[in-house]
Design a protein that fits this description.
Strand content: 35-45%
Distance between the termini: 23 Å
Number of strands: 17
Structural class: mainly beta
Helix content: under 10%
CATH architecture of the domain at 33-136: Beta Barrel
Order of helices and strands: HEEEEEEEEHEEEEEEEEE
CATH class of the domain at 33-136: Mainly Beta
Oligomer: single chain
Shape: globular
Strand order of the largest sheet: 1-2-3-8-7-6
Number of helices: 2
Radius of gyration: 17 Å
Length: 271
C-alpha cells in the first residue's frame, strides 16, 4: 500500500516525484474530477445512469479511510464523516475549492481496496460552483493493453502506462484482493498516489483505483504484495504497481448514491 507519508520524507518524495514522474502523455487527460486528501488521492465519480441531482461521490482506497485500515473481512457502511477534499483545477496546479463528506457510503479492503464518500454537494452543485464535472465510473471489465493514466491529486502528477494484465489474487499482509490490475512499467506511483483514479486514456472514464506496489521485493508483506494464481503458485514482481477494478460499483448503488448490496448484480463484499 502506498499511502503513508511521514515528516521530512514528504519533501524528499515530492522532489523525487517531480524529477522522475512521467509527464501526462495524453492531452485529453486532465485533473478534472481529481481530489487531494490529507494523505491520499481520489476523484469525484458518477455512474453513467446516476442523475446530476444525486449527492456526489468521492472514490479512494479502503486503506485511505481516516479511521484506519479496515480489517480483513470488514465492510463499513454508512459511517459518518466530515472529511474535506481539495478539488483540483483541470491543469492540476491549484485547488478550485473544497468539498466535504457527509458519510462513508462504503469502505472495505476485502476482495478490493475501496472507499466511497458521499458529499454534502450534488454533482450539479459542484459543477455550478466550480465548473468541474464528475468522472464517469464505467460498469464494464477493463481490458489488457488499455492505455491508462493514474491521476494523483495529492502529487499533482499524472502517471502513464498500460494494463499489463490481471492478477487472480493479490496478497499483501493479511489482505487479499481479487482480479487486480497490474500495470506495465511507466506508472511510477509513490506514496500519496493511493486512491488515484485509473483513467482509460481513450475514453477519459474511470476503470479502476490505484492502490499498491511491491516496494522492496519481499513476499506477500505489507508494501510488498505478491501474486497468487488459481493453483496457489506465488509470484513476486519487485517494483510492479497495481490497482483495483471498480466496474462492479455501479450495480451496488441506487440513483441517490446510497449503497444497496442486495441489489441485483451487486457483487461487492457485504458486512
Amino acid at each position: 500500500m502506498i499511502r503513508r507519508l511521514v515528516g521530512a520524507a514528504i519533501a524528499v518524495a515530492a522532489t523525487f516525484a517531480l524529477v522522475t514522474a512521467p509527464e501526462a502523455s495524453a492531452a485529453t487527460t486532465t485533473f478534472t474530477g481529481a481530489v487531494a486528501l490529507s494523505n491520499c488521492s481520489g476523484s469525484v465519480v458518477k455512474p453513467a445512469a446516476t442523475p446530476m441531482s444525486a449527492p456526489a461521490l468521492v472514490l479512494t482506497n479502503g486503506h485511505c479511510l481516516e479511521s484506519g485500515f479496515p480489517q480483513p473481512g470488514q465492510v463499513i457502511v454508512g459511517q459518518s464523516s466530515n472529511r474535506s477534499f481539495q478539488l483540483m483545477s483541470p491543469d492540476g496546479q491549484s485547488s478550485v475549492g473544497t468539498v466535504r463528506a457527509k458519510k462513508v457510503v462504503y469502505s472495505t479492503m476485502t476482495d478490493t481496496d475501496v472507499t466511497l464518500y458521499q458529499l454534502t454537494d450534488t454533482y450539479a452543485g459542484i459543477q455550478q460552483k466550480y465548473q468541474v464535472p464528475p468522472l464517469e465510473l464505467v460498469n464494464s471489465h477493463p481490458q489488457a493493453g488499455t492505455g491508462i493514466d493514474v491521476v494523483s491529486g495529492y502529487w499533482k502528477q499524472i502517471y502513464s502506462c498500460s494494463i499489463d494484465g490481471f492478477v487472480h489474487e493479490l496478497h499483501e499482509g493479511d489482505w487479499v484482493w481479487k482480479d487486480s490490475i497490474r500495470y506495465t512499467p511507466g506508472c511510477a506511483t509513490i506514496g500519496g498516489t493511493s486512491g488515484s483514479p485509473i483513467v482509460d486514456r481513450a475514453t477519459g472514464k474511470v476503470i479502476g483505483v490505484n492502490n499498491t506496489a511491491n516496494e522492496d521485493g519481499q513476499r506477500c508483506t505489507v508494501n510488498n504484495p505478491c501474486e497468487v494464481d488459481e493453483s496457489g503458485n506465488v509470484t513476486v514482481r519487485p517494483d510492479y504497481k497495481y490497482g483495483e477494478e471498480t466496474y462492479g460499483i455501479p450495480a451496488c448503488l441506487t440513483a441517490a448514491n446510497e449503497i444497496a448490496l442486495d441489489q441485483q448484480g451487486c457483487t461487492l463484499p457485504k458486512p
